[in-house]
Amino acid sequence: MQKIPQIIPAATYRKVKGVIQQTGYNGVVQLEVNDLAGEHEARMVKQTVADLPQTLLAFTGSSGRSVKIWVRFQRPDGSLPDTRRDMELFHAHAYRQAYRIYQPMLSFPIEMKEPVIDRACRFTFDAEPFYSPQAQPLVLQQPLEMPAELSYKEAVTSEPEPMKRMLPGYSSYHTLSLLFDNALSDALKGQSSEEGEEEFKALLVRLGTNCYNSGIPEDDAVRWTYYHYREEEQELLIRTTLRNTYEIARTPFGSKPCINPEMALAIATEEFMKRRYELRYNNQMGEVEYRERNTFCFSFKPITERVLNSIAFNAMKEGLKVWDRDVKRYLYSDAVPVFKPIEEYLCDLPRWDGRDRIRELADAVPCNNPFWRDLFYRWFLSMVAHWRGYSNTHANSTSPLLVGPQGSKKSTFCLSIMPPELRQYYTDSIDFGRKRDAELFLNRFGLINIDEFDQITTNQQAFLKHILQAPVVKTRRPHGRSVQELRRYASFIGTSNHKDLLTDTSGSRRFICIEVTDVIDLSRPIHYEQLYSQALAAIYGGERYWFDREEEQLVTTHNQDFQEVSPLEELFQQYFRPANKNEEGEWLLAVGILEHIRRKSALRLSTGKIVHFGRLLTRIGVISRRCSEGKVYFVVKKE
């Protein structure tokens, strides 16, 4: 199936230098009728839609069990939108209008899919497609915003089969099994410790009464009883006793099912929730998300207090005696499956086609650093490897920093790294002053952009180091009662308009500073599936995804141009210089150097900066050694 070509009906495309680009929009909406029994039902659907003058094309899908319907739309003046935003708005409204026109006339449901322009279908070999080149296009005013995600109300019909009516959502077999087990359990409670045929017959009478009151047919009750007591000499006794019990019963059949109300309510609630809603627990967001079935709601949304009350109210309208606490108990239980968005995206990727797309993405950033492509490649591998959970003891502590003037599209490039499906797990607003929230961001987001990196204060540098290298998150979630160990997903990237942004005197190996020399080129579309498939192929192939010492030294050397020159360093360079090993110099304490600078410059310098000043001297390469007086530095005074 993967080798069958695909057709995108809504737009036209062309390939330029191996990259597919959209060239136009033709206003064609595709509706899909799926899960048909075969060619007979597919022919029925095609014949039905052929009666509408607006049907442009109707054909059987490549599976032979679906029908694709194409309808053309246009604006009142006969034109079509020409910008991407207007195309998306127009197409979303057109899809809903087409659905409302075609669904009432079809006996089979149209499967609602998110109306994206690049929705494709596989090439078909239908020998008898319906095609009408004179089909009338539907007219639609250019919308100004996306349509509201309104839903149509699902009709609640009564179930004719008593078993399914008693326990909705269960098959007849499972319902029968559950009811019989409860009837047998209740009958066994009245059994005495004596054994014999009389006691067994009394048990059969109680069992038969419970089966009758539960609405279990006589033949099923006999068969299930015999399954439990497989003795041939007892078969006649079982059949005769249960038949007599059913004949002499005086209560209406099935009027008192042998199942407690709590169990029945729990089963009915589960059936209601699965029929009306799609639910998932977003492990990364830490909350339950929902999407109504049979609606135009194509995206999952978090459960709020308003949504919780609406679900409970809808259940009451269907006759369920539930409270909001019952709905909440179900939502926050194991009945709701766990959803891991980043892992699921990576696990659904196709095989890599062999093209190096990671370095191509790095090439979009114009710079003079010859090592940028390889450094970005290594960082990208590390980001994906930590998304897959390859290391629980180390974090992706290295972060690219794009430095350039405003308007060079630095932030746009950072956002473009994330695929559209994972954009909600990207943020460029992290506040290091709110430490608990910043730690939760490590679990909540996959990529964090430290926008305006130079705005980080000196007091926040220590916490920034902790955040960059923390392999796990140990904190308490909002409204939580205990400290949890949460998995870290986040990698970091940063932007700045100023070049002198590194202030840490202990080193800068955690940042890959790149000066952007021109506007970043984002005109070429990114094939995200192949981009991330390449990273996974490299990781699965055993390629190194962490930075080694040689690469860290390369980064540190290159970052010297981005180191902030403090006033203390400028004063030192004015009155001193580092001495070489083969020349005469003086061995001075840091406080002695500061005192000499204070006398020469007549500036008031705080001795509280002595420790910081010593680190600064070490960073700029001043030779030092330990002596009885402390740590001294080898310098030469300037005249």
Summarize the structure.
The chain is of the alpha/beta class and 639 residues long. The protein folds into five domains: 6-139; 162-248, no CATH class; 261-339, no CATH class; 357-562, Rossmann fold, CATH 3.40.50; 567-637.
Overall description:
Residues 351-563 form the Virulence-associated protein E-like domain. The chain has 639 residues and is of the alpha/beta class. It has five domains: 6-139; 162-248, no CATH class; 261-339, no CATH class; 357-562, Rossmann fold, CATH 3.40.50; 567-637. 38% of the residues lie in helices and 17% in strands. It is built from 21 helices and 24 strands. The strands form seven sheets. Strands 4, 5, 6, 8 and 9 form a five-stranded mixed beta sheet that branches. Helix 12 (357-363) packs across helix 13 (372-387). The longest helix is centred in the first third of the chain and has 19 residues, at 84-102. The termini are far apart.
